[in-house]
Amino acid sequence: MATLADIKSRKLLIINTIFIITWLIIAAFPFIWTFLGSFKVREDFFSRSDWWYVISGFNTIIETGGRYTLNAYKEAWIEGEFWYAARNTVIVTFFVVTISLFLGTLGGYALSRSPYRYAFWILITALVFRAMPHITLVSGYLFPFFQLNIWGILPTTIIVLVAINQPFTLWLLYSFFKTVPKELDESGMIDGCSHFQAFRYIIMPVMWPGVITAGLFSLMLAYNDFTVTAMLLSFENHTMVPKLQSYLGTNQHEGNMMWAVASVVSATAPLFMIVMFFQKQIISGLTAGAVKG
Amino acid sequence: MKHKTFFWFMLPTCIAMVLFIAIPIVSIFVQSLFIEHQKPTIEIEICDPFGCKKEVGVDIEAYAALNEEQPLGRFNGLETYIDRNHLAFKELYEGWSNSKNFREFSSTFFNLPFYKALTFTLTYTLFVTPFVICLGFILALSINALTLKIKGPTIFATILPMIVTPLMGSLVLFWMIDAEGIIGSTIQDLFNDPYLSLKASTTLTWITLITYGIWHHAPFAFIVFYAALQTVPQEPIEAAIIDGADRIQRIRYVVIPHLLPVAVFIALISMMDNIRVFEPILGFSAEASAQSFSWLIYNDLRNIEVMNFGSAAATSILTIIMVGILLTPVLIKTWREFGETR
Lengths: 293, 342
Fold this sequence. Notes:
A: MetI-like fold, 2 domains, 15 helices, B: about 350 residues, MetI-like fold, about 70% helix
């Protein structure tokens, strides 16, 4: 009996291992492949004759003399002005994260401490807002922004991204502050501080785990956004993702496809590193709303 | 918390949401009621050596003045909603009464942009969502059984498809399945057909997009299931073991019932996300055979010289209505839960 169970569980273990390895290949291989290919010339990465060229670098050796080349990166960053797009992304991401955390912590804290019915209504409204497809909101921005002459510049995009991000940040921080005991700030208020002071001196020191999670999600939203940045920024002010798309649009020009490949790698690498570093926080954030909801 | 304190805490975030989410929704509705001005015409006399002719042309000055005066365009009521590019009632009716059989009607139906997008969006949503839930659940079970040491790296690799922006994720895949990429050329070799391309047929494009959708969304379902698995109580499982239930039975009769509410949550979130499918269509350059609502709106707005605000706004309102229908169950659920806790 025991041996039968043993065989059964070993079988299961083997199936399980095979399944996970297959999945890992499906999930990670495309990125590894693109990463390898970005150090080659176009004829190797988009090779009609043999896909093995991506590894061996047949044409790369002929054209540049080495198996690896940084040409795609050099051209994309300098000629393609990807550095400017990267700069814009850094500015947008930094301000979106800072402002949405500032607004979100205040709001989320207030929502978690209010016993009244209207707090609930605000949360429900936020849930509805969260579900709006971004492009429908963008179609609402364009006309007024043209009329007010604030289309195409970074500050407008930053504030729009902050607003679009607010519903999610509010829910996340609301459920986080719910786990911070009420007695903590009440004890401070008994000792005579105002609600603001209680927030500043008692809640702020203990809120960092929740804030880091919320900040990471704002960061991912701002960094990854395509819809808003592509439609609300003028061509010169484009951030990385719309810039990348513009390389695709002009693919008659031979070098541009490799620009896109190099910029995909350049744009994803920092994101992967951040995620690797903060993996725990991201997972706890995603599940915070889920287990309750 | 006092009302006044609450007000000051909430004020900044509420201003942001009202200004940039609530007002735009109203603005979309208003825009959808208007349409571009008709171009005023003017008669111009053109004279050449063979005599003078009168020709009708666009009066550019008058048109500019008209746009200056009423930038939104002229009032059109709900006409935009039922024109050919949206609900197209007239075309549908004509198609129904003129076509001899169902096939003829369906070709009329699928040539109308709105219904074409509706078909794709719904197909995409209905295929991606269940697959995402199943794959996410199996992944969570498998990865949960791993030893602690390799769990971390496995989870990291698993969530990669989710954290990359859809445009880049789809491009990375597109370059591989393209005729010149590793998968595309292998498939061509396998079938010995040098012209076989995933782009060539509508069905293959749809399958590609749906596969991409599953690849992109499964990690989300995995994470939520994985977290929920940690909350499964141990006592019933132990009881089941004592009663002689094997692994599969334990999952079937203890774990799945416990995770059912979570699955519902994932289904709704993933439906909300799938219905706005947009970036993969650009990434896979699939505009010709697959169009979604978001793509229709984008298409109306992408040319900065001629933006069809009215048309884009009408599609947006229709999209919002669809999202609203989907969202109602979530709202009711949240509502009930809150009622219990408060």
